[in-house]
Design brief:
- This protein is of the alpha+beta class.
- It has 2 domains: 97 residues, OB fold (Dihydrolipoamide Acetyltransferase, E2P); 169 residues, Glutaredoxin.
- The chain is 24% helix and 29% strand.
- The chain has a 7-stranded mixed beta sheet with strand order 7-6-10-9-8-13-14.
């Protein structure tokens, strides 16, 4: 989500008004493909302003037609229709046309190979909102839902949407003690230079109704640039720093109590779907042991 400038209030209003109308809207779309991810059938595209929908940015778009997707290569300049539904929370490209192939020779291309379902997740050091170091292995025995954001993200249908829906899951699980004790939420920033523990704590509290006890079940974390790259590669996340903003793909990962990848979600997901999958994994989790599972948040 590389936004050249903060979304003006009028544009935000237009996006949210679209959600109040039935059906979907189509917009003319032009941009250059920076990467292609066959696993998710997504193109990461740097594009100009889309009047009435969003400003210039770089982000991932699903191409629903597999034949249409297959023909495009990294470096291509494309024209297409971007279809937006549900107030911009769902969007995809249709009728993708290649208008210039000359950029293929210099394009980096080639998405990283993310972990397959059933693979063990990496065990790298993370620092949470309280400045405490932890790793994913600390949650063995629990089902974990993990995602990536950055706190300065200005687009409401991206990072704020993710955090808001994780907050809904957090609240729902808090009313189901057994599932709550066997699950955990983790939000990782890919902006470690800005998203320090104090910044993440303030951000997290905004989604926890200013109740710090919620941190016992939901960590907001960052790591060093090198380990962040390793995590991003492992989970197939793509991100680019540009013009003091960060372009990135959307990535949610469900991790089993054994510490293995269960499922990925990109731009297509619903909160009930995420919550149901997390609860299902929790059924195979053992009773929580004393220790981190019972830690206090302050």
């Amino acid at each position: 989500m590389n936004v050249k400038q903060l979304l003006p209030l009028a544009l935000l209003g237009a996006i949210w008004m679209a959600g109040c109308q039935s059906g979907s809207k189509q917009y003319e779309f032009q941009g250059q493909v920076l990467d292609k991810n066959p696993a998710t059938q997504e193109l990461t595209v740097k594009h100009g302003d889309i009047p009435g929908f969003m400003p210039a940015m770089t982000m991932a778009y699903t191409v629903k037609d597999p034949n249409n997707f297959q023909n495009v290569k990294a470096g291509d300049v494309i024209a297409a229709k971007v279809v937006a539904a549900k107030g911009g929370t769902e969007y995809w490209l249709e009728n993708v046309r290649i208008t210039d192939e000359s950029g293929r020779k210099t394009a980096k291309g080639g998405s990283v190979h993310r972990l397959d379902v059933g693979d063990q997740v990496p065990d790298l050091a993370l620092i949470n909102q309280d400045g405490k170091t932890f790793s994913l292995s600390d949650f063995k025995g629990k089902a974990v839902l993990l995602t990536f954001i950055y706190t300065r993200c200005p687009v409401p249908t991206f990072c704020p949407r993710l955090s808001g829906q994780f907050a809904k899951i957090q609240d729902d699980l808090s009313h189901a003690p057994d599932d709550f004790s066997k699950t955990h939420l983790i939000t990782i920033s890919f902006d470690p230079k800005y998203d320090t523990p104090p910044v993440l704590r303030k951000y997290g509290l905004a989604y926890l109704d200013n109740n710090p006890t919620g941190f016992s079940h939901w960590d907001f974390a960052s790591t060093n640039a090198s380990d962040l790259k390793k995590l991003a590669d492992a989970f197939g996340l793509e991100y680019f720093e540009e013009d003091n903003q960060i372009s990135h793909t959307m990535d949610i990962v469900l991790i089993s109590p054994e510490g293995k990848v269960v499922k990925y979600w990109g731009t297509k997901w619903t909160t009930p779907e995420l919550e149901a999958a997390l609860r299902q994994q929790a059924k195979s989790a053992p009773a929580p042991a004393q220790g981190r599972a019972q830690r206090k948040a302050g």
